[in-house]
Write a structure and sequence with these properties.
This protein has 4 helices and no strands. The chain is an all-alpha fold.
């Protein structure tokens, strides 16, 4: 599942395959991560995994690692 989340993250953020994904990636250190990208990421993950995020979940999704952990918790 982590691989699929990272794949969606890479697509939404429009990152090249040679960009190394790190758990600490966030809107402060990744220029592509803006509010529109955040909402697109959430919508794509909800669609892919058939889940719905709560408002509190979205507020906590401030890094790639948090996105993975919160999404995995919803799917399991």
């Amino acid at each position: 599942m982590q691989h699929k989340i990272e794949q969606i993250f890479r697509e939404v953020m429009e990152l090249d395959d040679d960009v190394e994904l790190r758990g600490d990636m966030n809107s402060d250190n990744l220029d592509e991560w803006d509010s529109l990208a955040s909402m697109s990421l959430i919508m794509e993950l909800e669609k892919e995994f058939g889940i719905k995020y709560e408002f509190d979940d979205i507020l906590q999704m401030d890094s790639l690692e948090a996105v993975i952990q919160i999404t995995a918790g919803k799917v399991l």
